[in-house]
Amino acid sequence: MRLAVSITVCCGALIACGADEKAETTDNSALATAPTASPATSQPLAVTSAPDGGDDIWSTVRIAEAFDSGSTYEGGGNQYSVAEEIGLEDVVADAQYAIRGRVIDIHPSEVNTRSGEFEISDEQRASDAPPAVTPEARTKIDVEVLDVLGERPDSPVSPGNEVRLDAAGGSLRLVMVAEAAAAMRLIDTDTTLPPGDVEATIGQNMELGWSEGDEVIVFVTQRDVLLSTFTNGKPDVRPDATTIAAWPAGAFAVVDDMAISRAEYTSFGSRLPVEDIIGAAEELNQPR
Fold first, then answer.
1. Do the Cβ atoms of 21 and 148 come closer than 8 Å?
2. Which one, 56, 125, 181, 265, has the greatest CB density within 10 A?
3. What is the pLDDT of residue 218?
């Protein structure tokens, strides 16, 4: 996963900015020339109570602003790495059905939890050395089905339906006490923590390039989505989430007679004739 994170003290001075060390592209526009702390270490920080007397530091974490512009978020870093390029055959193999539709609503970004707000599991809350719980962003997208281009047997979709996609990526501005940011490994645990709240801006590129009203072609699948909370040392899941097949390679914007892809690491490039995509989608009508 590739994640761009910037941290600011609420009065405005930048104190830290971190990103997954594997990242090849991140949004560093907030860095400028402000002083930064040293990179976050892996040393655990045991903090059990909030400075204001609240239940614990995690109760201070809240969403201050969610990205909500009517378009998909295309800033920040990419979220994935691949061993080889993804082809249309990989998209088809991962899909349950393919639709041509229209984007009717791009919802505000959410935290990747069951509620969409920041959550932490009882296991993480009780631990003296909580595991890294850096939240990720996801975005719900509602698409009106104009045509079903291909489908496996017993497909649950028909023209006129609305499909809500649980899409990876988005942007959130979180506010929390500095101790919570340190426990999430967002700032260096060896650094003197600033007083008061800090802000964490999390950005993850959606690689879709969609806006409300756009005509799109989507290869859709259902799979378990890993959440930002843990139980028994393993990530919790949202089962059978409706999402983009071979994300993000299974999503296209339709412009005239061309299908436009914003996905990196594909063998088919950024522009394909719509008829080629339709031909690939029709393979879904064949037995596996």
1. no
2. 181
3. 98
CB atoms within 10 A of CB 230: 18
- Beta strand residue intervals within 23-181, DSSP E: 62-66, 97-106, 110-111, 137-151, 162-168, 170-177
Eight-state DSSP code of residue 282: G
Is residue 164 predicted with pLDDT exceeding 90?
Answer: yes
What distances in angstroms separate CA 129 from CA 40, 185, 246, one per listed residue?
15, 11, 35
> For residue 39, is the peptide bond before it cis, meaning its omega torsion is within 30 degrees of 0?
no
**Ramachandran angles phi, psi of 48, nearest 5°:** -120, -5
pLDDT tens for each residue of 52-73: 434 578 888 899 999 999 999 8
In this prediction, residues 13-35 reach a mean pLDDT of 29
- The residue-averaged pLDDT of 208-222 equals 96
Give the pLDDT score at 147: 97
How do the domains of the chain map onto residue ranges? 4-285
The helix or strand, by DSSP H or E, that contains position 280, with its residue range, turns out to be helix 274-281
pLDDT at 22 over 50: no
Instruction: Please enumerate in sequence order all residues whose Cβ is within 8 A of that of 94, keeping only pairs 6 or more positions apart, or say none.
Output: 219, 221, 245, 246, 250
Percent of residues in the chain assigned helix, strand, coil, to nearest 5: 10, 40, 50
